[in-house]
Design goal:
By secondary structure, this protein is α+β, with helices and mostly antiparallel strands. The chain is built from 13 helices and 24 strands. It has two domains: 251 residues, 2-Layer Sandwich (BirA Bifunctional Protein, domain 2), CATH 3.30.930.10; 97 residues, Rossmann fold (3-Layer(aba) Sandwich). The radius of gyration is 25 Å and the shape is globular. The structure holds adenosine-5'-triphosphate (ATP).
Length: 444
């Protein structure tokens, strides 16, 4: 983990947030390379959910949430972790994270009884802070998918089964954020709520578990480092009848990367008015405030029913950490660090490097090549005008750039460039006119 943290800072992937004022625990900022990798990961998820399928719509809903949404979703009552105080050193901990129930700070066993601590952040909307205007920062992105269920049904031609996907920030006031970006207080989720007919939910749950496992393998994660965990009945969230977690062997140990839950009709049922009109599960929150019914009509028998929901919910930061960990290698033979990222995730797709810094002819030529490749639109191409080829190769190996293109004096004479492959380190001379095809084929 230390090596990854150090690489992230050195190469501009991740910085401690607010660090010039001492930093805030559990918050991180994504630098020039980090933001590209993160966007590539999110974009790949979005494409796989929406563009490559015909049964999912997208959404981007607000982060600030009306308290009623999180009251009826059950989060006000149940979204808690067990908190204990150490009477010796006055520090606070989550009891289920402590080894042998000892304070990690001073090793004292003199702890208070655990009490529930609600993880939701509150803020105020508008200028008056009298308690009547408070809102929550959403602790998961999906509640706004449920509250928009009818809007999306009414504005598209969707029928069950179909899904709504969203990527966005979520906030949890974790008692002990830790393990770099694994457990943080502000993070992003990639969530799909897939609505199905009751009775078909188990089949769809199995389908999504397989689909999501394979998706992580496609992002470059070795399947030997992934495992499916059937979550114990006693550990299930209040809304779930079954959850399978995709576990990954992170540098600090095996933990959850993504959870796939069968949320039954809990959420749509809990946000619905006139609940007695539907045959819904007994667990749903009783609701006398909702203005709408989130049910659908069966085409054939015309009966209204409450769909069930299968939810694959993945953390962007945990995905980022897993992918970084998988691709990080020290190549002893060539004394270099390499991030062998899958090219579609690489922050920089190709670096164009003029042999000599600020040489007008070389730099102009390099700029032209950069602009032409950039137009293809597969991601960021970088012009490296520092003149040190060896250093540039090392730097781009470390940030996972698959291709380096060097423009030298021969380029000016015969229009050829040197193309270097990150993984094999092989170099070949290519005519500039063939570069576009080479680049497109590489990423195809
Ligand atoms: P954990 O048990 O590790 O706290 P969880 O079961 O509470 O996770 P979910 O509510 O299922 O997590 O959230 C879905 C996904 O969101 C998780 O699989 C994880 O990838 C991500 N996630 C949840 N909490 C955090 C956090 N504090 N920091 C980073 N990612 C998180």
């Amino acid at each position: 983990m230390d090596e990854l943290v150090s690489l992230c800072k050195r190469r501009g992937f991740i910085f401690q947030s607010n660090d010039i004022y001492g930093g805030i625990k559990g918050l991180y900022d994504y630098g020039p390379m980090g933001v590209e990798l993160k966007n590539n990961l999110k974009q790949t998820w979005w494409k796989s959910m929406i563009y490559e399928r015909d049964d999912i719509e997208g959404l981007d809903a607000s982060i600030l949430s009306a308290p009623d949404v999180l009251k009826y979703s059950g989060h006000e009552d149940t979204f808690t972790d067990p908190l204990v105080d150490c009477r010796s050193c006055k520090s606070r901990w989550r009891i289920d994270n402590l080894d042998n129930k000892l304070c990690p700070n001073c090793k004292s066993g003199d702890l208070t009884e655990p009490r529930p601590f609600n993880l939701m952040f509150k803020t105020n909307i508008g200028p008056v802070e009298d308690g009547s205007s408070f809102a929550y920062l959403r602790p998961e992105t999906c509640q706004q998918i449920f509250t928009n269920f009818k809007n999306i049904l009414d504005s598209t031609s969707r029928t069950i089964p179909f899904g709504i996907a969203q990527i966005g920030k979520a906030f949890r006031n974790e008692i002990t954020p830790r393990n770099f970006i694994f457990r943080v207080r502000e993070f992003e989720q990639m969530e799909l709520e897939f609505f199905v007919e009751p009775g078909t939910d188990e089949k769809w749950h199995d389908y999504w578990v397989k689909k999501r496992f394979n998706w992580w393998v496609d992002q470059g994660i070795n399947s030997n480092n992934l495992e499916l965990l059937d979550v114990d009945q006693d550990d299930l969230s209040h809304y779930s009848s079954k959850t399978v977690d995709i576990m990954y062997t992170f540098p600090h140990g095996k933990e959850e990367l993504e959870g796939i839950a069968n949320r039954t009709d809990f959420d749509l049922g809990s946000h619905t008015k006139n609940q007695k009109d539907f045959n819904i599960s007994s667990k749903v929150s009783k609701n006398d405030k909702s203005t709408t019914k989130l049910a659908v009509q069966n085409f054939e028998n015309k009966k209204w029913y409450m769909p069930f929901v299968i939810e694959p919910s993945a953390g962007v930061e945990r995905g980022f950490l897993a992918i970084l960990n998988e691709s990080y290698k020290y190549d002893e033979e060539n004394s270099r660090t390499v991030l062998s990222l899958k090219p579609h995730l690489s922050p920089i797709k190709a670096a164009v490097i003029p042999l000599k810094r600020n040489n007008e002819e070389l730099v102009n030529k390099a700029k032209k090549i950069k602009n032409n490749l950039q137009k293809i639109g597969l991601g960021r191409i970088m012009l490296e005008n520092t003149g040190n080829i060896g250093k540039n190769y090392r730097r781009h190996d470390e940030i996972g750039t698959p291709i380096c293109i060097t423009v030298d004096f021969e380029t000016l004479e015969n229009n050829t460039v040197t193309v270097r492959d990150r993984d094999t380190m092989e170099q070949q001379r290519l005519n500039q006119d063939d570069l576009k095809t080479y680049y497109e084929n590489y990423f195809d």
